[in-house]
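Quick start: what a row looks like.
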Amino acid sequence: MKDRRSIKTKKAIREAFLSLMEEKKLNRITVSEISRRANLGRGTFYLHYNDVYDLYDHIEDELYGELGQLFDESYPNCDPTNLLTFTKNITEYFQKNQDIFLLLVQSDSNGKNLNKLKYFFNKKILQDGLCKNISEFDEVESIFIVSGVVGVLIEWLNDGIIVPQDHISSILYKILLKF
């Protein structure tokens, strides 16, 4: 079990970092700024992370790890009930981590992070999904579906689609049933 102080310190560092990411680009954030905002010494930061990019990578790895676990636990496997659970769980997770998702997709101007998110889901569907012999059609269909769902979720998180989480989940479920 992790030391409570270590967990609390990492949480403070993470929150300070995320608040700085709302103000400036990743390459402009310094360890000193994070440490000051987290009310910690720089040495404490370095006990947990090598540098700002290491912290960013840890946050991203944690996010993708949790998404992967969520996906593995609730991926549809041909059962429409599982698909409903899957859309519910994904929308809940995106809403719970809204600030991180929006920072990730908005913090880079060339769309690299958004593409990485789409690639993650596409890989999970094709690799871990039901497809044994993946055709070009399957690949294109997966890219199409993932791009649409991720696009809708990002638009929803940005308040472009103003509906409650359970409603967006239901809408996505109904759309995905068509595929």
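That is the whole record. Residues 90 and 96 are 10 Å apart (CA to CA). The chain is about 75% helix and 0% strand.
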